[in-house]
Here is the input.
Amino acid sequence: MNQILILSLLVSHLLLLSSTIITPADAAGGRWKLLQRSIGISAMHMQLLHNDRVVIFDRTEFGPSKLILPAGKCANNPNDLAAGDCTAHSAEYDVKTNTVRPLLLQTNVWCSSGSVFPDGRLVQTGGFSTGERKVRSFGPCDGCDWQEADGLLAPRWYATNHILPDGRQIIIGGRQQFNYEFYPKSPSSNNLHNLPFLSQTNDPGLENNLYPFVFLNVDGNLFIFANNRAILFDYVKDVVVKTYPQIPGGDPRSYPSSGSAVLLPLKSPVEAEVLVCGGAPKGAVTQAVNGKFVKALNTCGRLKITDASPQWVMETMPQARVMGDMILLPNGNVLIINGASAGTAGWENGRDPVLSPIIYQPENRIGTRFQVQTQAAIPRMYHSSAILLRDGRILVGGSNPHAFYNLTGVLYPTELSLEIFKPSYLNPEFSNVRPKNIVAIPQNKIGYKQQLGIRFSIGGKLHENTVAVTMVAPPFTTHSFAMNQRLLVLARGKITPIGKSAYQVQVTTPESGQLTPAGYYLLFVVHQDIPGTGIWVHIQ
Here is the structure.
């Protein structure tokens, strides 16, 4: 081969590379970073608020924590075992400063649930013992603390909450509660409503239907998955609209056989799909209690819940996983993180931590959707959690498979640490394609069916057909389920250059609260699968 031919081939190869669109899949793996060795409590529950602070809490009966309350503050509820405890069991984590502020709880929030109201307040319900009928609200504001009051008609322990199009939240299930209720109360909604589906999915002595997976469908009804099957439920008329097929294999996916689930990105006002992953085989709970830890499930089921005759499509994960968290990423992919490969949820019932997260790419063909990521150094077992932050990082914390704080001398010590997982879309090599300087025109307060201009800049060449704008509802995350989590891909119009490397993309906001309940959302511009830092928008 002569030198001219070699040179010609080299030039052709370089030209081909220069025209290739690079995506995060070409640099898979992600990176881990420890934020704090100890925040003093274990992150059993987490919620990001629109001031970029995260509310974290565990359980008041764990014993004294490592986070001291301000002078003069102590738990003083005479009915709670924590009475006289001057340590915190809740904290506000400031993402920007990487600092923690202790918060005071008077009732037990263990295994509780919550939603963010349209005005941005976290309204959180239930728990154990003194907390089982409580309603608590928090900020966001500088220096504020929990407000607690009676407010529930039934004890809610291991229940699921979902925000509704009218601004209320529905609270579904809980231990031995085969019913639902609404909050706030009104003369027309101050009742308990029976939900036979919850008793039908209850395995005697095992349950396997707690923390049901609940999603607001595009038609305004609720998709409710418990144990190994699901219904579409009209909560206005109190009727089951549709009964879905049992997930193939029939193994339980709900707590304590804890799999996880997400509503996949919504791209259409008439179509919706749900993805359920992991869990534990039938009988695994009993065997774990007896000291035998069965391999977790390695399958996912995907169901188009809006189809006339929907059928589950099954896929196999690279690893078996129970107690995992499923988090929607700004580019529409799903991160599966935390958990174990054997056993179940519950005190001391899990074994063999799964240290490698997985990214699921729903637009890929079957067989190419899963991508294994870089291993973590810290096991995140029972009572761990994860949430998406505004800059696209994932905040990871918690893990306490013990009845109390147990920091040494055990197989999986109580974890008080916080760390970050950075998906590969945050790698430095994507700097030139990453959207920056994102601004909503005319403002960050938006309405439904509104034309909106989103301004952004790109350091390198713009590939117009790869630009998307997404809106993400930050979830309340606990026990392997992210309540209220949803991602919408906004209808996109033309892209107009407005300066050097600067552009404006025209989008249309969702058409109703059935698609997007009122409240605060993170809005992202995505280019070549690379999201920029999100901005907060308030839709109402």
Notes: The longest strand covers residues 491-499. The CA atoms of residues 43 and 398 lie 4 Å apart. Residues 1-20 have pLDDT under 50 and may be disordered.
